[in-house]
């Protein structure tokens, strides 16, 4: 019987070993997207302050698109002959990042923290694009499309964090909490 990452079959033109490498790569993307979806909903539910409605309404289309991205990744994993693990336990045991750290908070603070989250996700997708490109243009294309959307979502977030001088209030922040603090200074 095939393992979760070494399929019995894969798409034409790839070896099962190549399919297995792509499955491994995509599985972490699936976990990241599922986590991002939940983080966006958490922010949506816990944002307060004068910018509440703008941020609250900005996030729902992002949530919807991120859920579509996760579905696309899961279906690609299945097409490659793998198992798309969508359970919370699989996500938590495999992820390489911590839970989102801001609870109920000011809209701008949440956006500062979300900028850090998007930076991590975008950087990881860029690495995945490079790795997938060495093996399979179809998987690479899927990830490139998602990268464009994720970068646009980060741009939406950063528009709220940009100063009149054109710099980001969160510049240099490496944690969600430090970014949230800088955003509200």
Folded structure, characterized:
- It is elongated, with a radius of gyration of 18 Å.
- α2 packs antiparallel against α5.
- It has 6 helices and 2 strands, in the order αβααβααα.
- It is mostly helical.
- It has a single domain, classed as Up-down Bundle (Ferritin).
- The chain has a two-stranded parallel sheet.
- The model has no long low-confidence stretch (mean pLDDT 95).
Brief write-up:
By secondary structure, the chain is mainly α. It has a single domain, classed as Up-down Bundle (Ferritin).
Features:
single chain, 185 residues, mainly alpha, Ferritin, two-stranded parallel ribbon, 68% helix
Secondary-structure topology with pairs:
Elements: H1 16-46, E1 47-48, H2 52-79, H3 88-94, E2 105-106, H4 107-133, H5 137-159, H6 176-184
Parallel strand pairs: 1-2
Radius of gyration: 18 Å
Please report the total strand number as a whole number: 2
**Envelope shape:** elongated
**Annotated CATH topology:** Ferritin
Order of SSEs: HEHHEHHH
CATH architecture grouping: Up-down Bundle
- Terminal Cα span: 57 Å
The helix fraction, in percent, is 55-70%
> How many domains in all?
1
Beta-strand content estimate: under 5%
CATH homologous superfamily classification: Ferritin, core subunit, four-helix bundle
